[in-house]
Structure prediction request, 196 residues.
Amino acid sequence: MATVLDSVRALFAPAPAFVIDRETPADVVARETLLDRAMGADRKTKSSEKIRHGRLPAEGLALVARDGSGHMIGTVRLWNIEAGINADGQPLDALLLGPLAVDPDHEGKGIGSALMRAAILEAKTLGHGAILLVGDAAYYERFGFFAAKAQHLVMPGPFARERFLGLELKPGYLDGAAGMIVASGRKLGHPPLVKR
Prediction:
């Protein structure tokens, strides 16, 4: 049972430094600006970007971190892919994570870790079997991503093998997975033509 003292503590408790939220269409400009600041102009030339091009993120798997004023200070998205074929020769549905980025002015506050944990939990809750990404193994291993899980899979175009990592959300999901990563899922729609 809550007491008056609990209510007073809640009233004067400090506001959280940031919250994790779903991305909205209003976040597009802020997200692109944040990605340019955090990752540089060459971010669009990477193999992962080629897979994401012309696609929408997986349903429910575009998350942002917002500061106390509601400004976006971090972003992560997951994308539907086919991760080669499984041991039975069937196409293997999975997710590709990225980009994960935090505003440089807010680094070191646990925002990236919170976004990762939220994205993994949401993907698992939605029933996905595995997540792949290209990134720094020393950072992503703490979340359960390992190169061995993606060892027989390849990205289109150049990629660093030691940075290509996988996480199974369902035990054994990537066992026997082999082949090329290809985009799947929802394509970006084109706005209707306006007749004049």
Summary: The chain has a mean pLDDT of 89.
